[in-house]
Design a protein that fits this description.
Length: 1052
């Protein structure tokens, strides 16, 4: 059988399956079955003096490496595996393919020479001690999805027998009526050396199917499946001639196994996708994702590894370690239910989210986070069942196979709204048929809907087993203590207490270090942690309140007395703090609600000035929208009052710190966010205002503009401000109609016109020759053209003539370069309107700017199109050709020139590009050592673009005809290598030949990628040879090469 030609390169790290063949004949049989051959990208390099031979290819969609050793026999399998592990370091599964012996010829047995044995269990026989033991070659502890998938496939196929190849490939025993070989699943006796006849008699009674040599050594190196063709009987009928046929059968069975693997993974994919849609509901994953986003530092010791083993630790840390060990013990124990109880705000949800993050990826685990404040599905028994089944079908490939029939719609049944009882029966069906152990993690059982708590308790108690384990986290309710049949119980306080102690100590020690040393910090830390009962925010509020008392000069005794007066319940503590500080309740609630709303719903950091403007909306309107005179002194007084309120009244909730001269407000600790967002007590205290997202963003826009005016020295990034508005418009287009966007722009424009908003927009280094507006107003308008061109046109009329001319050119130029791919229709409309105002498409503003030359917008658009990589999505999109046609027609209708000449740099490359044209101001890729300097007119440039677009299966000549203008292209010079000088092309013949080479490189077929690469490489080589040939005959440039008086270095 002839081998297909190599198709592509493969990195060794991408190969995860090895096929180990002790004999070269079996390796060749496997290689002959390759669907595709690959070239080893490491160019055959191996580890040290690796004696193995390797071939990389694809069988049934699996990338594999075949490893063998010429001249070796079966006993070499372990050595082949050892070297393969060193040279291919990412192998997860090995298939050992070869031949074996049947124990003896039994006329009553269905296992005959010529059959194939597939084994995942090997019996190790010690001939010296006459003892044997059995091992699994695919142990459950093995890492990697390949092992799990193969274990399940063989689990399903164990009792099946099938013909792996044609019956005439190996002979059946004479007199036997079978027409062909069969496949058998079982155990092989395996040893590192050949087993003698006495050993055969000893192991015969164990039920093994055959005798193998060498595979046992492989199983110590890789998880593996042993696939062996029977070529003789150990007690008689030694027929070595059968060995090659048996090896061919084993190779054929290997392909069948890989085919079955692929089929198993693909079967039911579309059906599973449909089922997932019916199970999904909005906010399915929001709760878990939200928890970790809001608490990135919580329970960091779990993420980083507990470092307490090697350090001196506190009693609380010691108890935490002991409880953590109990959690880990439960994972491997037979105990079905584990209950973690803790108060609201003690970090139960965060602990579970962190636990799931830490959980090994190969363990089968699903979870559900009940949330009282969430949607009905987030807190119902039905939503719980949908969530678990959705995760099982998404993450466990065996679930689709197990549940597909059970979940299939019956006659007249529509699976658009699952019945609760049906969902429960499906989940229990999975439990009865599960291939591996499942862990179910349930958070917030006490937050489930009132009518569903009893259902959940019944489900947990009745369904949990040692293979269907359930971990529950909830409030320590007496009802759960009585009804939850959990023998393993953990108080969440044991996990959270060390972190509360750390928060408290960090807070108090800072004050003591600054003020006095007579405080018993250790005692206060322990007292606060004890009274907090695991609730983070209680510990934070208590420690920060005491910190303020210490700053006010209170004695140690007074502070301790104050601590023990503080109520344990959060609501009572809140009211106690307000009463002690004689705080106006309405004022307190207003500041708390608005500041939390800004920080939790909109931004993680804001300024004191923005908080002031948020609590005084009339002042904001006067300051930004109405532009009423506001006394600077009055504004400063209000600002200082707001700052004092935040610092004194909310010391336990907010931090107020000055950064870069501006007072910023942030949350005091991550637990503040969790408490107010996720607990009912926190939400009741927060009382978030019912403003829509749209109104929140509009107010935020006004506050940002107000800040620009209040902090004139703090330059605001205009680009970021406008991008923010673009994001809002994109995310919620219904909330941001054009008239509203225009209104917000006008607010910003008024601030710029008055000089309150300064620009920080600067050309990037790579764009230092890009046309750029010279005034702050023009800069803003150019940036805004991307979002709202109509407003730009109105605003431009308010500029002076020079600025208007400069701005309109920059807008036009901007639209003709990279922006066109971001919004084609808007760019086309913008260009159309500018050209309709009688601006020239060949407009070159060089004389009106400080830079030397930018080229015309018309030319830059054409250079952008020809610069598209041929492998890019934009290039392959045939709709692009229609769009390019519209642009070209628009420019031609407005009088764009085809005769205009331009300098272009081209380098011949063998990669996926057609040869790249350097824009005259963007510069040349210095890594390319060979390139040509060309002068061409626009007509020639369009012809090259047409050639490229034709090869993509489309045409740009639609709806217009090019004027009858002579195409022009000439090679001015070239550089033949990194160390070569520039050669000047003085002969027209040389130029014509090089131009023809360039045109050919733009005319490579795209249908066959590998063939086009080869063709491109050949044509690039031809161009390079011409350059080398002409370099000997062309004069070298003795001075700097120029084009129309401008040095070529500005283009290269």
């Amino acid at each position: 059988m002839s081998s297909p030609a190599p198709q592509s390169f493969k990195q060794r790290l991408s190969i995860r399956i090895a096929i180990l063949c002790p004999r070269e004949s079996e390796a060749q049989s496997i290689i002959a079955l390759f669907d595709e051959h690959h070239i080893d990208q490491s160019h055959g390099r191996t580890y040290g003096d690796d004696p193995n031979q390797y071939s990389i290819g694809t069988i049934a969609g699996c990338d594999v490496v075949v490893a063998y050793r010429p001249g070796a026999d079966n006993s070499s399998s372990g050595h082949i595996a050892k070297w393969c592990r060193k040279s291919f370091t990412n192998i997860h599964l090995a298939l050992v393919v070869g031949v074996c012996s049947r124990l003896h010829d039994d006329v009553d047995s269905d296992i005959l020479a010529g059959d194939v044995i597939i084994a995942v269990r090997l019996m190790h026989y010690d001939q010296r001690l006459d003892k044997h033991s059995t091992i699994s070659t695919l142990p459950e502890s093995s890492k990697g999805k390949e092992v799990l998938e193969m274990r399940y496939l063989l689990h399903k196929s164990k009792s099946a027998t099938e013909n792996p190849a044609h019956a005439d490939q190996a002979g059946a025993e004479e007199g036997n009526e079978r027409t062909g070989p069969k496949k058998h699943y079982g155990t092989l006796v395996s040893s590192s050396i050949y087993v003698d006849s006495g050993a055969f008699r000893s192991v015969d009674k164990t039920g093994v199917l055959g005798v193998d040599v060498g595979s046992l050594d492989v199983s110590k190196i890789f998880p593996c499946v042993v696939i062996k063709g029977i070529y003789n009987y150990s007690d008689r009928h030694q027929k070595p001639a059968w060995a090659d046929n048996a090896g061919d059968l084993a190779a054929a069975s290997t392909k069948v196994l890989l085919d079955d693997w692929k089929t198993m993974l693909q079967d039911g994919k579309s059906e599973r996708k449909s089922l997932l849609k019916t199970l999904h509901f909005p906010a399915l994953d929001d709760r878990e994702n939200d928890i970790l986003e809001q608490n990135p530092a919580a329970f960091a010791w779990m993420r980083q590894g507990d470092l307490e083993e090697d350090t001196e630790i506190s009693e609380a840390q010691k108890r935490r370690r002991e409880e953590w060990d109990k959690v880990k013990e439960w994972v491997t124990s037979d105990e079905p239910i584990y209950w973690i109880a803790g108060n609201a705000g003690s970090g139960k949800s965060t602990f579970l989210a962190r636990l799931l993050e830490k959980w090994p990826s190969d363990i089968n685990v699903v979870s559900h986070f009940f949330w009282e404040l969430g949607s009905s599905k987030q807190k119902s028994f039905k939503g719980f069942l949908c969530s678990l089944l959705h995760q099982l079908l998404s993450n466990d490939f065996t679930a689709g196979d197990i549940l597909r029939e059970k979940m299939r719609a019956g006659p007249g049944e529509v699976l658009d709204d699952w019945d609760e009882e049906k969902l429960e029966s499906i989940l229990l069906h999975y439990r009865h048929n599960a291939f591996r152990k499942l862990y179910i993690m349930i958070d917030g059982l006490d937050e489930a809907a009132a009518g569903d708590v009893e259902k959940l308790l019944d489900f947990i108690n009745s369904s949990a087993t040692s293979e269907f384990k359930i971990c529950v986290l909830s409030y320590p309710d007496e009802k759960f203590l009585e009804k939850l049949q959990a023998h393993c119980v953990l108080d969440m306080h044991e996990f959270s207490r060390p972190d509360i102690e750390a928060i408290t100590r960090a807070t108090l020690e800072k004050v003591v270090a600054d003020k006095r040393s007579g405080f018993d910090i250790d005692g206060m830390v322990l007292d606060i942690a004890e009274r907090a009962e695991g609730v983070f925010i209680w510990g934070l509020m208590a420690s920060r309140s005491l910190m303020r008392d210490m700053n006010d000069g209170d004695s140690h005794e007074e502070i301790v007395e104050e601590l023990f007066k503080m109520p344990v319940a959060m609501v009572d503590l809140w009211n106690y703090v307000k009463k002690q500080r004689a705080i106006d309740s309405a004022l307190f609630d207003k500041y708390l609600s608005i500041t939390l709303d800004l920080l939790l719903r909109h931004r993680s950091r804001l300024t004191v000035f923005e908080v002031m403007m948020a609590v005084k909306p009339e002042l904001l309107e006067d300051y930004v929208v109405k532009n009423k005179p506001v006394s600077e002194a009055d504004l400063r007084t209000k600002y200082q009052a707001c700052k004092r309120i935040l610092e004194r009244l909310f010391v336990a909730i907010f931090n107020v710190e000055k950064r870069n001269g501006v007072a910023k407000v942030t949350l005091a600790h991550y637990c503040v966010q969790g408490f107010f967002r996720r607990t009912k007590t926190g939400r009741d205290l927060w009382k978030p205002p019912r403003l829509s997202e749209k109104h929140m963003r509009i107010l935020d826009w006004k506050r940002r503009l107000a800040s620009c005016r209040f902090y004139p020295n703090e330059l605001v990034n205009l680009s970021r401000l406008l991008t923010l508005l673009q994001e809002w418009e994109r995310d919620r287009p219904g909330d941001y109609p054009p008239e509203l966007i225009k209104q917000l722009f006008e607010m910003a424009w008024r601030q710029i016109w008055r000089g309150n908003l300064l620009s920080t927009l600067e050309p990037e280094p790579k764009d230092d020759l890009m046309p750029f507006p010279r005034s702050n107003k023009a800069t803003f308008l150019m940036e805004m053209a991307n979002l709202h061109y109509d407003f730009v046109c109105d605003a431009v009329r308010t500029l002076n003539d020079s600025d208007e001319h400069d701005t309109m050119y920059c807008v036009l130029y901007h639209m003709c370069t990279n922006y066109v791919f971001e919004n084609k229709n808007k760019a086309l409309d913008c260009i159309f309107n500018i050209l309709n105002k009688e601006y020239n498409p060949d407009w070159n503003i060089a004389q009106n700017t400080t830079a030397d030359c930018f080229g015309t917008p018309w030319v830059q658009f054409l250079l952008l199109i020809i610069n598209l990589p041929r492998s890019s999505v934009e290039f392959k999109d045939t709709a692009i050709s229609h769009w390019v046609s519209l642009f070209i027609k628009l420019f031609l209708d407005r009088g764009a020139s085809l005769e205009m000449r331009l300098p272009v740099v081209f380098w011949p490359g063998g990669g996926p590009f057609t040869g790249k044209y350097a824009k005259s101001f963007y510069g040349l890729d210095k890594s390319k050592s060979r390139y040509l300097y060309l002068e061409m007119n626009v007509k020639a440039l369009i012809e090259l673009i047409a050639s490229l677009r034709k090869q993509s299966g489309s045409s740009i000549h639609r709806g217009y005809t090019l004027p009858d203008v002579q195409s022009y292209m000439r090679v001015v010079g070239f550089k033949g290598g990194a160390d070569e000088k520039i050669s000047l092309v003085t002969y027209e013949t040389y130029s014509d030949l090089l131009v023809e080479a360039v045109r050919k490189m733009c005319d490579v077929e795209l249908e066959d990628h590998s063939q086009s690469r080869k063709q491109m490489s050949e044509r690039a080589d031809a161009c390079t040879r011409l350059m080398e040939k002409f370099a000997e005959k062309c004069p070298s440039a003795t001075e700097e090469l120029c084009w129309k008086g401008t040095p070529w270095r500005l283009y290269t």
